[in-house]
Amino acid sequence: MTEPPRRTSGFRSWFSANGRLEFALTLVSVTLLTGACAALILVPRNVGGLQLATDEAEVLGSTEAIDDPRLTPVRRELQPFGPILVRAVAAGDSADALLVAHPGHRADLDVLEQELGSAIAQVSAVWGTEWNRAPMLVVAGSPAEFTALTRVAGAAATADVAAVSLTGSYVPGSTPTDQRIVFNPDARRRVGDEGLATLLRHELTHVATRAVTTDGSPLWMLEGFAEYVAQRAQDTTFSQIAPTLTTRLRAGALPTDLVADAEFTGTDAPYAYETAWSACAFVADQYGEHTLTTLYKRLATGPQSAAAQDAAFTEVLGVSRAELLDGWRSWLRGHAA
Hints:
- This protein has 12 helices and 7 strands.
- It is an alpha/beta fold and 337 residues long.
- It has 2 domains: 26-212, Zincin-like; 219-336, no CATH class.
- Strands 1-6-7-5-4-3-2 form a 7-stranded mixed sheet, with helices on both faces.
- α1 (33-40) runs parallel beside α2 (71-78) and α3 packs parallel to α5 (187-209).
- The longest helix is centred in the middle third of the chain and has 23 residues, at 187-209.
- This is Peptidase.
């Protein structure tokens, strides 16, 4: 029995009428965190003298402060907004992952802590374990704080953005270690616990792939791959993952080409993200996950002309662009039925 079409309320909504996650816009940004801290601080007007609150550590019930140098810039940025909670979570790497939020978002930390181990395992199952598996997860306490924490080169994430991954400076070819994911304060309320777990897997994929990803690479590959990893092995259907795409497919509108970068902004962005996911899911299904990962590494080296992408398809997949698109569209027809 086919599923009825699921409606989406558009780019500025993260969830459908029944509360399931439909779309989570993410940004992959590179910024020198230690050098940008001052620019990232936004002090609320009602705060008096900057008397920094003491963070409350939550390590096996201990109330002792966590002494980790990675916390220094985060404390400086968050504490003007109020006391913070810090949890150190063993994440399978040499260092612990750090989870940071204000007391009002303790429930968000509970979900992230519970899902972190599984999310890291899911990403590693596709990408391998050679990546920073001890990132910092930060839940902003207010829209103003979220904007401050994600401001990059004069621009900042708005309330429409669910989460942002940030990476500090690193030597090309090495594994970045100064990485954090900043969550919108309303993310869990809007998408629920399951949606927050999906968002975590998506952003961790960006963290894992950062070392081999050059800015300007095709977004259909970067975002489609991250969403593929986030959604694989989950108990979700095609139409639940891609409701906007499903509606158009059932109306007879098939993609004519891979999604262009410009389509990832504006009111049609949900369709772009879902279509990018479907392209990567098709490659994984037809050619294997290892081949999908190889294609990612081939295309994530910077801006790619159409000819360069065509060469990558021939080299990695053994098919032309036309053959790839024909196979993808046939696959889409079968999944949208």
